Fold Amino acid transporter transmembrane domain-containing protein.
Amino acid sequence: MRTKILFFPGGLGLAMDVEGKASKGTSLSVNLEQGQGKGAQNDDHGLASAHTIDRDSWQQVGLMLVTSYNCGWILSFSNLVMWPLGWTWGVICLIGVGLYTAYANWLLASFHFIDDRRFIRYRDLMGYVYGKSMYHITWVFQFFTLLLVNMGFILLGGKALKAINSEFSDSPLRLQYYIAITGAAYFFYSVFIPTISAMKNWLGASAVVTFTYIIFLLIVLVKDGKSNSNRDFDISGSEVSKVFNAFGAIAAIVVCNTGGLLPEIQSTLRKPAVKNMRKALYLQYTVGVLFYYGVTVMGYWAYGSMVSAYLPENFSGPKWINVLINATVFLQSIVSQHMFVAPIHEALDTKFLDLGKAMHSGENLKRLFLLRLSFFTGNTIVAAAFPFMGDFVNFLGSFSLVPLTFMFPSMIFIKVKGKTARIEKKAWHWFNIVFSFLLTIATTISAVRLIVNNIQKYHFFADA
């Protein structure tokens, strides 16, 4: 289903048209819900999107956030976060970075409306405030992040399927076969459920599957932790490697809490969009965080420094529970991965589909099929060639997701509210900009170092 919305232009050419307005010193004004009670205010700024806008409830979006961030990726965070940091710094960073991320998303949600215009894409927002260059930079960062997230999901699904096969065979098929099966499953889901709003009827089932695998997972972790009296929590490696690994862990915590696509998610919310987005965020950072932080901490408690990058590899059994957890992780990932790749689908669908016809009409269905096939074929091949799940998590959390999450919202604040804000607020946001810039450099160096080390250790299409 497509919706034509009368909002601020989202295309590149239109973003370029308004560049001068933001860059000539013209005052920009923000209103939390401007235009939401006056349906005709945005009539001069028509925007066509192939995806549904302004329809979903905050409960639906909140449930989507809770289930999507409690996907199978959390099975890696005990190794990626707690193992490099240990108990003290691990807990401090989980709480500190989590609160910082929640605040950054809360701030970004307030800029969904500026100068009576609604921004349904992150790149449109940055392009309007800072011009054409920031439009391109934001889109590259988002595109890069979401591609890597999707590759990570494909790797995750492949590992889950291989783990199931390993329970019944001493010589399971290579990982690449399961990666291909996972890519095919994601492809078919994205064709029949093409938008975020279309996920509505699947979120209930996704929630049941999510909490099923988490409950059984916690039961196994408690059982294994009680029986594992020889575990230790030593942080191994040289002082240099400990520092680099710590920055990698911080990047993983960012990935754990956000995805760099809040405006795109917010665009699906019905009025009032800002208040509803914040309600959905409250649900994520209260209910949702309890589960993915709980699994992260419990996994480290159960296995200590021997915790695996894919938690089920540490399980002591029985066989049926290993199969159940891996099967539910795979099924849940089919739904949860869809949210994180939606901005790419929306851009392609809006460009190539006929917006005057139904999305699943004859010609549009053919185009949709080809678009999704091309995307998932490419991503599946790359994921099969580079099966290093932890590296993807750290790299996407450093180079692109850190600035998208922390730097850009404060940059928007400085531009939109800088002339009227109190000096302490401006100082705070300048601190955020500088700090996140330095954090981006440090975590990116750490991620590149990890990738280089694993490239030396593994080969292309490794059966990892």
About this structure: Confidence is low (pLDDT under 50) at residues 1-26, 34-46.
